[in-house]
Amino acid sequence: MVDLQVLTMTPNQAALASLIMALSRLNKPCSLDFYLENQYVAAGIEKWISSWSANDWKNSKNMTVENVVEWQLLTYMLSRHEYRLHLKENHSYKNWMMESLTNVDFPKCEGTFEKE
Question: Quick count: other Cβ atoms within 10 Å of Cβ 19?
Answer without folding.
Answer: 20
